[in-house]
Amino acid sequence: MAHHPCILRPRRLAGWLPVLALLWPLSASASDAHADPSAAVGLYLAVLLMAAKLGGHLARALGQPAVLGELVIGVILGNLGHLGVHGLAPITTDPHVDLLARLGVVLLLFEVGLESTVGQMLKVGVGALLVASAGVVVPFALGWLAAALLLPQASSYVHAFLGATLTATSVGITARVFQDLGRSTSPESRLILGAAVLDDVMGLVILAVVGGVISAADVGTTPSWSGIAWIVVKAGGFLVVSLGLGVWLSPRMFSLASRLNTGGVLLAMGLSFCFVLAYLANAIGLAPIVGAFAAGLLLEDVHYRDFRDRGEHSLEELLAPVTSFLVPVFFVVMGMRTDLATFAQGDVLGLAAALTVVGIVGKLAAGLGVLDKGIRRLTVGIGMIPRGEVGLIFANIGMGLSVAGEPVISKSTFSAVVIMVIVTTMITPPLLTWSMGRGLVPPQPAEPAESTP
User: How many other β-carbons are positioned within 10 Å of the β-carbon of residue 240?
Assistant: First the structure.
């Protein structure tokens, strides 16, 4: 019987293992003090990219999005140390790889933003606000309650902070699934992305409030509510100013840049615009991905039609090779940073299970905020489930806060949060794919063909 050439059979799959095996001892020696650091990073990227493509292939063979395979194979590679293979351990701590992974998720949100416009997002504005509000308030309350029941000896500050870690949504996972399934422009996708941006802002506000109260309690003073109010003003102001000013400024910038007589101007301008807004978002305390997504929303085909008129590719087409390189790095690295040994701790598993359940239920409740009858609530709720790197960032902040000399988030509590992040991240792709495959999402109408003159 003939085999389809695109299917990787087990015997062919086995052929990849010696390749990775050869790289393990090499990666162990790549950190030699006399070696050029770019050589080590290049080798790490070779492992990550091959692993990403292998994992993506296997996931697609099972009918799942490629991103799930990238995450799973990352988990496998990151835990080889438990089997005595330590050659890949430096990848998870290498600062250069970490930087590339962070750039990958920034570019992913920029790419997703390019597939929508400010006008389209405004159409789901009220719905996105309701979805985000439900997706923040319910997980926060349930997380606080679960922590109070399972950690009665801990202070209320710990309970509140654990609730705060459940508020933010890591939209990168959901965005990638919609992208893999060709549904990035669906009403559900736009609603989820809009809600996730507001969700991130609200989560930051809650984090600021809880963190301010904890910091004040640690030194025996009252919290600075004026400082917290200023963070709220900055967060809302960034979105309003960046979108309002950007709508006016971006077409003029690209029109001026089109006069430059050199290659690669459109891609350079697009990336620069993305990175500047990501930097500004980070500068005022928001996640860089919020700025990157805003940058993508602002840029429309009409803004760079001068480039198109002279036969150049669209910005989306120019960006594709860059994102296909960096985005998988982010997901594999995120998987590699998962330590399966934490699953062996009973008390950690109990807290992790509770946080995971309330985290899932809380975000499913976000679907109740959907007003449009043409948008399925379950799909929106599922799309809001993953916590990803955002939940880990919140937990890391908690490890740096203390009350009476005790850290708000202990190492064991952090492990429970990590497990919650892993589970919510891993279950979203198959659940989202299932919800679409079961016809829970109405099919998108075909785009009308452009008439030729």
Answer: 10
